[in-house]
Amino acid sequence: MIEIIVADTTNSYLQIAKLADVIWREHYIPIVGKPQIDYMLEKYQSAIAIEGQVENGFEYFLMTYDEIPVGYISIKKEDESLFLSKIYVLNTYRGKKIGKTAMLFVEEKTKSYQLKNIRLTVNINNTNAIKAYEWLGFINVGPLVTDIGNGFVMDDYQMVKKI
């Protein structure tokens, strides 16, 4: 059974940080390299960084499968959009409808906040994710390059889905 649980405790932030460490290293090192992933995990996905994001309006959710933590979501309410900051599932749990359940959850959140669309960014070389988002109805609205410090940039596409 898939559950999506509000992450609002130090313990849940630590669980998410552990998941991020596994998922990001596995998936993103081939795309952007280990130095950038080491930097980004510390800056954006440590328990302390997550707590700071929550204090600044981000919401985090832990996803479990048969009570095992297998992924997480991060969203932020904006003026007209719900920003889907993060949606990640452990590789060994893909294909079990966890991602689909998560996207339905995000769509429901968007509706409950009375927002017009979901907005996300995805690395331009993350072709499988781009295809999946397009299949889900997201439109690529163009490139977005963000300087994240320490000589690193996030080279993304911005994608939007109307709700």
Describe the structure.
The protein is of the alpha+beta class and 163 residues long. The protein has one domain (2-162): 3-Layer(aba) Sandwich (Aminopeptidase), CATH 3.40.630.30. It is 41% helix and 38% strand. It is built from five helices and seven strands. It has helices at 10-32, 34-44, 47-55, 98-112, 127-135; strands at 2-7, 58-65, 68-77, 81-89, 117-123, 139-149, 152-162.
Percent helix among the residues?
40-55%
Biggest β-sheet: count, sense, barrel?
A: 7 strands, mixed
Give the H and E element order. Answer: EHHHEEEHEHEE
The SS-based structural class is alpha+beta
Number of strands: 7
CATH first level:
Alpha Beta
Q: Remind me, CATH topology? A: Aminopeptidase
- CA-based gyration radius: 15 Å
Mean pLDDT across all residues, rounded? 97
CATH superfamily: Gcn5-related N-acetyltransferase (GNAT)
Counting H and I runs of at least 4 residues, what is the number of helices? Answer: 5
C-alpha geometry: globular
Fraction in beta strands: 35-45%
What spatial order of strands do you see in the largest sheet?
1-2-3-4-5-7-6
Do you know the CATH architecture? 3-Layer(aba) Sandwich
Domain N-acetyltransferase: 3-163
Protein name: GNAT family N-acetyltransferase
Pfam families: Acetyltransf_1
InterPro entries: Acyl_CoA_acyltransferase, GNAT_dom, N-term/lysine_N-AcTrnsfr
